[in-house]
Amino acid sequence: MNSTISATTATSAQANNALAQLCQMTTVVADTGDLKAIQQFRPLDATTNPSLITAAASLPENVHLIEAAYEQARNEGLSGEPLLNRTIDILTVKLGIEILKLVEGRVSTEVDPNFSFNTEATISRALELLKLYEAEGINKDRVLIKIAATWQGIQAARYLEEQGIHCNLTLIFNLHQASACADAKVTLISPFVGRILDWYKKKENRDSYPIEQDPGVNSVKQIYNYYKQHGLKTQVMGASFRSSEQVLALAGCDLLTIAPSILQELQQRHEHIQPQLSAELAKQAEPVDYVELDEGRFEEFLNRDEMAYALLQAGIDGFIKARDQLSHQLRESFGIGEIKA
User: Fold this and answer.
1) How many other C-beta atoms are found inside a 10 Å radius of the C-beta of residue 141?
2) Residue 153 is part of a domain; what is its CATH number?
3) Deepest of 86, 99, 171, 311, by most Cβ within 10 A of its Cβ?
4) So which residues are the catalytic ones?
């Protein structure tokens, strides 16, 4: 699935810039909830997460969406914590709908990260999000349900995919998570690049790595090659970039989700871009043995991988913190009282 950002954007910023070239070999996705940025770059798809939703909620132009979400939740007869949670879910969908007005493809909408280790709750909340979209006339095929790639989250995605609901498994930090996602036949995964680089820089007390040694880039390359070598249909969407160099090192990946600041940087680069990933190149790469996992082996491999274990938990904690920040903002804005234990 290849796409250009848009004819308008490519024309206005010279067709030979790095972004325009990248779009000829990779589906470029905007990693933002900022509607102005999405309108500027016109990506095929867009991804959001609790941090991006919280950031978007702080923008003055989105106040009307927050107020509408609160009124809708309150009209359901809710109060206290249930009212806050429902307001956040409705707001998340309303922002998703605004994004879908600006893109031709899909939006990724994340389930409450508090349920990352609860399969049943994740499924239930995912179905509620889809009901909100469908009530506004949005077909489920335009929504990717975004779930953290814990074992429990992957099993929730397995069930949802069996029901024809497409999922984006996020916070992928190693091959074993990626393998379990492919076994669950999820639509796509989001392996992180920048967070892996950050972890290794701190662990090894280094300021930088040559791009060919970048551990985040190489992790995504390994996953991509593994999928292509074994004929796995789940798509790979590289995420969490720190630089345009990291992005270009993964040119040819199925999808790449990129923040507006790096999209802007790519527009300003004009060197010739070569594909770094493809099904053909994967066949020529070092073979990666097929990995078969059950819950026990998944948890064993994850616990033995210090980086993946730490970053998965930190990512979930960070998304929970962002959702809590939005909850606090709503509590103050609408005078919603605390629930006493």
Assistant:
1) 11
2) 3.20.20.70
3) 171
4) 146
